[in-house]
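Good morning N.,

You mentioned wanting to compare the apo and holo forms, so I went ahead and generated the holo version with pyridoxal-5'-phosphate. This is what I fed in:
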Amino acid sequence: MAISIKIIRTPQSRIHLCDFENIEFGKIFSDHMFRVDYVDGSWINPSIIPYGPISIAPSLSAIHYGQSIFEGMKAFKNEAGQAMLFRPIENARRLNLSAKRMGMPEIPEELYMEGLKQLVQLDKDWIPTKDGSALYVRPFMFATDDYVGVRPSLNYSFMIFCCPVNSYYPKPIRVKIEESYVRASTGMAGFAKAAGNYGISMLPSHEAKLEGYDQIIWTDGHSHEYVEESGTTNLFFVVDDKLVLTPKLDGNILNGITRDTCISLLKDKGYTVEERKIAVSEIIDWCQAGRLSDCFGTGTAAIIAKIATIGFQGKNYELPEASERVISNFLYKTIYGIQTGKIEDIHNWSMPL
Ligand SMILES: *Cc1c(COP(=O)(O)O)cnc(C)c1O
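and this is what came out, ligand included:
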């Protein structure tokens, strides 16, 4: 069945107010947003409306009990000026996995995709074209009952808004292996992009900042002996410029789309990629022997975030210079090239609109 979306255009575009040369990350929003509500067991009134505040009750169930999930992806423009989404269906599927874990309704993939495509097409002029930039797209779902009892909400909203973002080449970061706090453990919701997982990470990352680190490497909740992920990125370790390792998906870490993209591209190139448990002690051994040639986080925002320093039990281990990172440089160039249509997309990851 065809999905019909009601569109109310903004009477006055704000695009002339956006300085595309200097965009502050996450603070500028495009003209429109998509919204669909879940009422009485069905998704109703899909609409695209001007971006702006929404009205909510103080008793809004999402605020009190945390049934709130999100996604993040990017849209680009190819040389012909066409809008391109990168692996959007994977985001739709992951949102539904998060929804299921949080006792929330799933959203039909066709409805998600139709809202997404029409919104990005309508706000296409907001896709920046400067090298490294993109339109960041944020789908999210939250519980909307105005009821203070603890039970799964009966009503929900699903929305999408967009932010133009500039190139995000952060300088290589300093990370600390965390041995006290835990992000997720067996049976919890680490694999879900659920708001609460980020709420509990704020204090630990703030404390790491006070110690001079940019981010935390989480370890497992049972023994703190195995690394999991870092901030909103999955982790990769390269030993002797040959062997690539990344923690396996054990239910505690997010199944990153950039992670999966990196694994495929590395396998295409003939690298051995091992997805397995990685012990902190192994990483420290590689560092001490000078064998850790590359180490980085992968995620939609940065694509590749190189790690310069690993801190563990008060000692800092320094990694090779950013320019010498063969694998992370290859991955960044290839992924951004595919996303913007400059490199051939043999996996059919890009979806032109
Ligand atoms: C979003 C996210 C990632 C990266 O996922 P991508 O699909 O590559 O953007 C990794 N870890 C966490 C905790 C995340 O929230």
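The mean pLDDT is 96.

Happy to go through it together on a call whenever suits you.

Best,
F.
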